[in-house]
Fold these 2 entries.
Entry 1:
Amino acid sequence: MLARKIGAIGLFAVALSGCVSTHTGDPMKWYAQMNGVPPTANAAIICHGFGCKFKQTVPFDRAADQKLKRILAGGGKSAKAERAAISRAVVWQERRIGKIVGSTNDVGGLDMHNSGKRGQMDCIDESANTTSLLLYAQSRGFLEHHNVERPTARGFFLDGRYPHASAVISEKKTGKAYVVDSWRLPNAKPPDIILVEQWMKITAADLE
């Protein structure tokens, strides 16, 4: 069992090496590197099972589209308000897809024992899914103050940190980049939205 966990973590580290410390550029290219599928004009392809092992199409029908629009419209006053609205949108989306892909009981944080299980998500799954939501919102004109960026990652074991990835947005006015990280907590809990440089400094000890 221990050998299997170590092997899974090793493969995970290799996967993350393609996006470490990168948070600008075309997010679409990241999907190909991470075995994911970018969103379509009217649907998100939800990853689960760790490393996008399983993929399931979840459409944005008219009701979902309008709900997302209303949530994000609540952040129109400022970039800070929009980040709060993005947090609410991620919670709504995770609750919505949980009923479809079976991720309602997705465990947060480092949970390698759930690798390969349907409905459980590692940070690659979470990054892909959050980025898909944000790309869809951006394509529909629902984001006023931010651009969606390529996901980023931190940690290489050698620096004492587990590899970890997150979705990223950048503030249009200032260029400041923020992670939108829904990995740390269970399904449908508010994501961490903090400056990338602050997120990069977080260690395993900080998460205990």
Note: The helical segments are 2-16, 27-33, 62-73, 79-101, 123-139, 196-200.
Entry 2:
Amino acid sequence: MEKAMIDQTTIWQELGKITDPEIPVLTLVEMQVIRSVAVSEDGVKVVISPTFVGCPAMEHMKGEIRSVLAALGCENVSIETTFTPPWSTDMLEPEVKEKLRAFGIAPPPKNEGELVAVLQLPVACPFCNSTHTHLDSPFGATLCKQIYYCDNCRQSFERFKPI
């Protein structure tokens, strides 16, 4: 008996449950790490794009994708990495940025060209919304974050870097 192909909608729904290993409040689909899914008689091809070249979580994410697709019965899975177009925080939808803020991470502003100018913009504290904040460290727990301090509520917080 011939095996039925899994439809793309089901695959996207299941892939949409995989959380980002470094930002567990967001999924790989919400982060736009998973760029495309193609289903054919030969199998399933997933195209992904890391947030940073050399992202240490890439192999973990690929393993999660393979596990989800295997659970759906997909036997032949290929995962391709692309850097074109490069991943950017401008790909994040407003509701995704709000999830970051609610989680305690200051979301990145729109990067409309001049990164140096964007990095000089005030950063609102995700806890009290004050812009009386300052950069504590340009390097956070992961490559995509910085550490800020709020002078108003006296909380440290991470900011997702605008890239």
Note: Strands lie at 34-40, 43-48, 77-81, 105-106, 133-137, 145-150, 156-160.
